[in-house]
Every structure is written in structure tokens, then in C-alpha cells.
Amino acid sequence: MTVLDLLIYPDARLKNESSPVTVFDEKLHQCVAELEETMRAGPGGVGIAAPQTGIFQRIVIVDVSIKPKIKHHGCLILINPEILEWDGFEIGREGCMSVPDYTGNVIRARAIKLTAQDQYGAIHEYDMEGYEARAVQHEIDHLDGLLFIDRLVSRRHDLFQRKVYKKSNKKTK
Q1: pTM passes above 0.70
Q2: Is 75 a known ligand-binding residue?
Q3: Is position 139 annotated as part of the catalytic site?
Q4: Domains in the chain, please, with CATH?
Q5: I want to staple 146 with a disulfide (CB 3.0 to 4.6 A). Which of 66, 73, 141, 165 is the partner?
Q6: b/e burial code for range 64-98 (CB count within 10 A of at least 16 → b)
Q7: Could you report the per-residue pLDDT of 105-117, keeping only the tens digit for each?
Q8: If you write DSSP's letter for every residue of 108-126 in order, what string do you get?
């Protein structure tokens, strides 16, 4: 398997729209496996979209199960995802592997109903809310050439430089 290189903002390719997946074959399965490995290689990554790696197809992987006490569907492979319904709105802090130096406050739907295909072409429908719904909306935005910084509540007050925590050299007793 391969950890793929990520496109980093301000790379203009991050603004490209992605094409629907029409062929569900071994090449697609390999692509999904490499995307998942790339997502898991990043610190705290809970999602990845194919365009973040320069693959402009409508493929998203989301797995928020690493976050404790979060309602989730496990590791979701979402191909050609489409949000059918949404309900309510919440402001939440987001970060992105393609915008590694910043986080920001973004308004998203609190709950969504989603349809997507899996890597074999079968169609599934999901109802999700909270953090998982936020993560899926964030990743679907990548498919349409949008980044979280395009959806900030306020560019002046809601974009934050990411903090870098260094390990202490102090010895503990």
C-alpha cells in the first residue's frame, strides 16, 4: 500500500470539481485502500476526499470512531455521495489535512440524510448527526472544490493558527 501525497493549500487543484465514479473495479478498490491508509497516516485525521490527493473522483472516506462517545457508522467509504436532507445548524471548529496550519469556525447542518455508493457500487442511505455529519459535509465539500476556509463564519474572527505542541524534555519521577 502507499501513503499518497496531499495537495496543500494554496494549491489551485484543490478548487477543482470531481467527476462521478462510473467503474467499480479493482483499480477503484486499490484507490480506496490507499486513501484510507493516507487518512490514517495523518495526525487525528477522521476523513479524506480523493481530490486532496490529486484524484478528482467523487470518493470520500470518513471514520470518526477514534473520537470517544461519538455516535457513528464506523469507517464509511462514500462514493458519489449526495446529501438528500439536512436539519438544523451548528457552528464548530474544523481543521483539514490540506490546510495544515489553520483551523476555523464553520456553520454546518446538525443532521443530514445521505445517499452514496460503496466501493462495489451498492447504494446505501445514512442518517447522521453531530460530529460525523460535520465530517462528511467537510469531505463532500472537497469534491466540489471547496475548503473549510471558504465557509468560515468570519474570515476576520474565525480563522485560527493551529497550535503546535512540543514534547517536553523534562523527566518525570
Answers
A1: yes
A2: no
A3: yes
A4: 12-161 (3.90.45.10)
A5: 141
A6: beeeeeeebbeebbbbbbeeeeeeeeeeeebbbbb
A7: 999 999 999 999 9
A8: EEEEEEEEEE-TTS-EEEE
